[in-house]
Amino acid sequence: MQLKPIEQSFSVAYAYKLHFTQDLFAVKNSLLKDILDGYKKDKRVKLLFVIDDGVSTSHQDLLNEITKYCKAHSKNIEYTESIVIKGGEQCKNDYSSVERVLKGINDQHIDRHSFVVGIGGGALIDMVGYAAAIAHRGVKLIRIPTTVLSQNDSAVGVKNSFNIFEKKNFLGTFAPPYAIINDSDFLLTLEQRDWISGIAEAIKVALIKDANFFEYIESNAEKLKDRLLEPMQYVIYKCAEMHMHHIAQGGDPFESGSSRPLDFGHWAAHKLEQMSGYTLRHGEAVAKGIALDVTYAHLMGLISETMLRRILQVMQNIGFDLQMPVSTESEMTALLVGIQEFQEHLGGELCITLITRIGVKHDVHEIDMDSMKKAVNTLNKIC
After folding, report:
1. Between the N and C ends of the chain, which has fewer C-beta atoms within 10 Å?
2. Is the pTM of this model over 0.70?
3. Domains, the chain, with CATH or none
């Protein structure tokens, strides 16, 4: 008996919102309560909070504010507990962080109609999202990012991840959050390097998608460096909007193909982070990665020297150190291994995004290793 294949196809629509606010856990701020009420009208929703220890240290009343808020809105919110975890990239390297979140989900009986609320920088948001996605095959997640980079980039997408085998984001899921809430008050306590770090992701999307946005960053570089909130809020909003638009309209939200323009500058960035023992912030590494790839683009005749120096100058005006920490042949070899690892992470053929002018991306499928080595040395001479 010849049996025919059974074929089935289906589509699932995803929708989530990025909200902007200040003083999120003030009792009079109804945003979080309203978001939960929109999920279950006039019913209590169980919440488990996972908080970056750096955030709780900088905002010492935060845990108390959360419990007060939940108590004041107990008609909508059933508070369980707040788990404080050491943030930074190390929480993505230590699986005990994932296990602590999973234990909280299990102990507090968090199910698919409950929420995990992650509050912290991009690394903690990634890790918490990964844990939430694998528990019960997915419990609902609300992200509250607290750094520039997480508010404009890492927390606004659909990816969650964990590092293993000395490779960044080797484990991961595509699981959109239920909502993201950007509270600008969290930015005010950032260290300077964390304040500017996330601007690298804005420069990234501007260079590949929007020359006008790059010009805005260029003309406001000193204001951004000096921590003026208004231009930073615009940069965060515009960058997040462009990231979310790409996810929705780019045709490949779950990255089935090999072209990933939002990873411009990231092949080197990921490797530099690993080589530094994750002492480099992600945004700092992205800035170096972008600088390297635009230098390579110049050497390959894609952009002029004038354009190269203009881009590098903008990043230096903001405060980025663009020196590549590569001084020996073994370090150069280790860095260039990142190209192969990036291809493995992409799957399929190698696809590296470069630019032909500001605002216009250009994908290449081969890298001339001698020219890339020259790009490293050229960049270090310029900067």
Report:
1. N
2. yes
3. 17-189 (3.40.50.1970), 192-240+257-382 (1.20.1090.10)
